[in-house]
Amino acid sequence: PMDVWGRTRRWELGPLGNGGVGSIDPQGRTRGSIGPAPQIYGAAPHLPPRLMVLKMQNLHGPRRRRGDGSSESESSEEEEEEDEERSPELHLAMIPHYGAINRVRGVWAGLWPLTALGGEGGVFSSCSSDSSLRIWDVRAPPGGGAMLSVDHAHPGDVNVISWGGAGRGAGHHLLSGGDDGAVRLWDLRHFQTGRSAATLKFHGGPITSLQWCPTERGVLAAAGADDAVTQWDLGLERDPEAGGGDGEEGDGEGELPPQLLFVHMGDPDPKELRWHPQCPGVLLCTGISGISVFRTVCV
User: Fold this and answer.
1) 232 lies in some domain
2) Quick one: which of 213, 219, 11 has its CA closest to 104?
3) Phi first, then psi: what are they for 115, rounded to 5°?
4) Which one of 11, 129, 252, 299 is least enclosed by Cβ atoms within 10 Å?
């Protein structure tokens, strides 16, 4: 969190290599060369409803190249131009947005393929109290607006989103959680249809936090205002021999969705949950009672 004009907002920061050279994995480790002048993109909600996007580059300041055995006659003008090009820079853009922005999540050039979005970095998503989901590209003109959008992703406010996950093709999958207590899965390759690929219903209150598992494909965790933390596996399906009608998962009265792996109760008013980046399967959850750390046998 960072204080922005007197009000605390959430930020999403991420490094980028020059021109997408090299990569950053979900644990923050660099792979390959990220170039001599790493860039950092940031995004944060702003009042009045606008999305503030900043880009920082050349954070290490001017760097002089060592002699490579060529002629020593380099003019001072050329040296000054090189220093100017390598000096720290901050670019700021304000994007108009209708409705209060709840969360911003970024996806950076790295392990996740972004070919469906036509980009190689600087693409991020936002959710809003106006029920919308939007995909943005910081390289687009300021008046270009969102690349992709769904105006009615949930019946009410959209509180949280999570992009990515583990496995091939995970960069196309976006999770959203709303005041309706539902978790929806979106495939960005079919985003413009406005229809989610799956809807998970169990929570009896608004979804307050959710995140893809970074190590297990199709596994996610969600927290709700109903004092429950749940784990899900999207790869599971209902056994046809067990019966059950068609429709959205969990529609039947007293019927549990087949994708539901585990329900953790007892932490009042959970606000945030995160998978541990170094201990596979370990979940950390914060609420009124403090911080809970647990691991289930399911993941």
Assistant:
1) yes
2) 11
3) -65, -30
4) 252
Structural domains in the chain (count): 1
The total number of residues written for the chain in this structure? 299
pLDDT digit string (tens) for 93-145?
A: 666 655 555 555 554 433 332 322 333 456 778 888 888 888 877 777 766 66
Q: What is the CATH number of the domain that holds 264?
A: 2.130.10.10
The long-range contacts involving 233-236, CB below 8 angstroms and separated by at least 24 positions, are: 233/259, 233/261, 233/298, 234/185, 234/198, 234/259, 236/261
Of the chain, the end-to-end C-alpha distance in Å amounts to 30
Please tell me whether residue 149 adopts helix, strand or coil conformation: strand
The whole-angstrom separation of Cα 56 and Cα 15 is 9
- The 3-state DSSP class for residue 167 equals coil
Residue 71 lies in a domain: no
Residue 124 in domain: no
The per-residue DSSP string of 30-61 comes to: EES---SS-EEEEEEEETTTEEEEEEEE-TT-
The dihedral region occupied by 284, where left means phi > 0, alpha psi between -120 and 50, and beta the remainder, is beta
Residues 110, 120 contacting (CB under 8 angstroms): no
In this structure, how many other beta carbons lie within 10 angstroms of the beta carbon of residue 44? 18
Give the type of residue at 59.
L
- Domain enclosing residue 231, as ranges: 153-299
pTM above 0.70, yes or no: no
Q: Is residue 288 part of a domain?
A: yes
